[in-house]
Amino acid sequence: MTTPIKPKFTTTDLDAIGEFTGRVVVLVGEDGKLDQAARRVNRLTRGALLRLTEAEDFAKMTDGDVQDMAFPSGLAACAVQVVRLSRNASVSAARKAGAAIGKAARDKDILVLAGNLKHVADLTLGLVLRAYAFNDHKTGEVKTPGALNVMCKDAEAAQAAYADAGALAEGVFFTRDLVSEPANVLTTVEFARRLEELKGLGLKVQVLDEPELEKLGMRTLLAVGQGSSSPSKVVVMEWQGGGKESPFALVGKGVVFDTGGISIKPALGMEDMTMDMGGAGVVAGVMKALALRKAKANVVGLVGLVENMPDGKAQRPGDVVRSMKGDTVEVINTDAEGRLVLSDVLWYAQERFKPVGMVDLATLTGAIIIGLGHENAGAFSNDDALCNAFLKAAGSEGEGAWRMPLGAGYDELIKSNIADIKNSCGRPAGSITAAQFLKRFVKDETPWIHLDIAGVASVPKETSFAPKGATGWGVLALNRLIADKFEG
Ligand code: BES
Ligand code: MN
Ligand code: ZN
């Protein structure tokens, strides 16, 4: 388990600066004016800081940019990191600056001289998020983050403002750890066990096992998992922080490993399919964050946990299975398994909870990566108001999302000769036909968004707030959507 750095906020103590042995961080705004702490750093370094801020390179920097002065004389510190950041910088600039500090931090202790910066908690959140590293399976010497001390004018206010941000960091780290885990560790059983541990935070957690899923008629979900020796499970997590009203529902695809099944994937890159539970990981991370910050909202998270394996018991191409809803599906390609899992969980979520709205997240199609790369998730929706609210929330959290179309025309493509629909229909509009398949399992009266996160759940290059690998994309955006919608 990776735990976020726990920052300590204290009022500025100028005399501590000289003796600090880690990395000292000073903030300098556009005007180049040095605050009290920066003046102390400048005096101790006999004017080095001022020479830096008066140099041409500094003028070219924008808010959030950084420069290092290594082993400065006059200070015990191993580096002074100069951050260009104005006192009134926006939330996103403050987070960006924090991320640059977190990226450089590695195993060093950090002293941030934040003065009277407006968004101290956001700078800290950016720092903490970027300092993530998944080291659970490394032996020998591992570099873990050092201590973080943020000195500022009003330490109490900063500490209070960080309470919610800290909950979000915990949620994001929970998601990233789940996504990073290999599939021999994070089996369906282990995933369910980790979710059951959330009970300690006040969440209601229920695990539905195969006999119950069978009774409920979740045949499309069970068909995906029937070739695996790990049993299929649906986990229901409830957070009741609001009144008596119906909950908002989050639904996640939790394929702990996707070999493709009998329609087996090529070997090259197949190891990436440990992240095919990314949707379920985001749902879990949001639920954890909501519980930790005691959100005043009713939210239910449902995840379908299965493993897609080739086996003598595995489903075959050509099989016809009946969904919980009653629609029959011809399985053309066993590698289009995510939609088979989600169809039953979406239906179950609506039958049981009558949610006021529903968002599903899934690493559903390779086609969405072709369309949008690793910058944006694909958003599909039957409700403009909900979708716009989500896109706004994602934008303000710096998480890319782009709306994609749905339309009756695409339904023609998923018609089957022998069943009601088929699960695969070739390459054109691959992400849309997958979304259109899901839409069949969403009632007209349920406002719904489908997020195809295949490109953003785990990425080949670092992002602003995460090293390469698991990002936790969506935890902040969904938390914001829920806050905006129910806690405003
Ligand atoms: N899990 C994959 C989608 C995926 C691909 C996620 C790359 C992350 C990175 C999904 O189950 C899948 O295999 N989809 C197929 C659908 C096709 C058979 C209709 C795909 O995208 O090729
Ligand atoms: Mn697949
Ligand atoms: Zn998959």
CATH architecture of the largest domain: 3-Layer(aba) Sandwich
Question: What is the overall shape?
Answer: elongated
Count of extended strands = 19
Note the beta-strand portion. Answer: 15-25%
Strand order of the largest sheet: 7-8-10-9-13-17-14-15
> So how many helices?
17
Number of domains: 2
The largest sheet, given as strand count, sense and whether it forms a barrel, is: 8 strands, mixed
Ligands, ions, cofactors: ligand BES, manganese (II) ion, zinc ion
Task: Predict the CATH topology of the largest domain.
Answer: Aminopeptidase
Keywords:
binds manganese (II) ion; 36% helix; eight-stranded mixed sheet; six-stranded mixed sheet; binds zinc ion; Aminopeptidase; Leucine Aminopeptidase, subunit E, domain 1; 488 residues
Task: State the gist of this model.
The chain has 17 helices and 19 strands. With 488 residues, the chain is an alpha/beta fold. β14 (377-381), α14 (384-396) and β15 form a beta-alpha-beta unit.
Topology (SSEs and partners):
Elements: E1 8-11, H1 14-17, E2 23-28, H2 36-44, H3 48-54, H4 56-59, E3 66-70, E4 79-84, H5 91-105, E5 110-115, H6 120-130, E6 148-152, H7 155-180, H8 188-196, E7 204-208, H9 210-216, H10 219-225, E8 233-240, E9 248-258, H11 278-292, E10 298-308, E11 320-322, E12 328-330, H12 338-353, E13 357-362, H13 367-372, E14 377-381, H14 384-396, E15 401-403, H15 408-411, E16 421-422, H16 430-439, E17 448-452, E18 458-459, E19 469-470, H17 475-486
Parallel strand pairs: 1-6, 2-4, 2-5, 5-6, 9-10, 9-13, 12-16, 13-17, 14-15
Antiparallel strand pairs: 3-4, 7-8, 8-10, 11-12, 14-17, 18-19
Helix pairs in contact: 5-6, 6-7, 7-11, 10-12, 11-17, 12-16, 14-17
The protein binds ligand BES, manganese (II) ion and zinc ion.
